[in-house]
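Running this now, will post back.
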Amino acid sequence: MRYKLLGRSGLRVSELALGAMSFGEEWGWGASKQRSREMFDAYAEAGGNFIDTANRYTEGTSEKYVGEFIKSDRDHFVVATKYTLFTRQGDPNFSGNHRKNMVQALEASLERLGTDYIDLYWVHAWDYTTPVDEVMRGLDDLVRQGRVLYVGVSDTPAWIVSHANTLADLRGWSRFVALQIRYSLIDRTAEADLLPMARAFDLAVTPWSILAAGVLSGKYNLPAPPKEGRAKEGAAKVERNLAIAGEVVAVADELGCSPSQIAISWIRQQPGVIVPLIGASDLSQLKDNLGALNVTLSDGHLKRLDEASRVDLGFPHNFLREENVRELVYGGTHGSIHNHRLRWSGEPL
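Update: finished.
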């Protein structure tokens, strides 16, 4: 395991983060305490130090397990948790991004985790009701109090994150240093705005659902695939997803590794500070995911996977890449300008 700087910060995190959403069985799936401990220990023994949980995961059990597991060496681990989602049904102030929910959610998380500070505190999802300045000033207060060390944002539009970090820089408040998004070979829509924005602001990106609910493990391409699962969507989408997974399986066969390792390696080799979230329900799955650290895809393999999974980025991205538009913008000089920023902007080289 090697380590990466968490975006525009000096914090060192392992190149794979352990997602703890499966710690606990309250949701009808997931891992028992013993199996959760086995996965945590295997991750830590591999050199992992970055644990991601949330106040709502398995009704709080995930945080409780993580707190117990890190207790013997708390300061070694980088613990990330989240707030926003409801903690009491029917009460409007027990959910959302506002200060009241932010503070009460943090207090409850600190108690469950058995710690007096959170290394990385995520806004879990944008609520469209709380002003950006209230969120950023509230988070900055928590940092100044020492109860939170860094702040990040998850599942939020790029324009809001840009607004928030620009405001934080202007006011001297703590800025977001990390962005959590859904991203995989199955769903690459984040490449339109979220990923270029993250690179521009030097945000670390921690993608979730990197195996697309198991589709990229290749299990739905088997002669006898599972009868249930989130892969069972509309016919056209299923056909596309299976075609992408089929290419992943083919590359895995060529390299002698698992399809999951190929999918994770593709994520890791994208530009920017990418720290994939690996989650599992048992030790064998986790060890297989960790095996991606030993897999490097060639330019040829990356090209094949890109072609199999490419998405339409829509307007204005496609419009600005049209030759007649480039002619109008550059006056015939586009091909003669060496732009070193292209690999960060989202524009193809």
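The chain has a mean pLDDT of 95. More later if anyone needs it.
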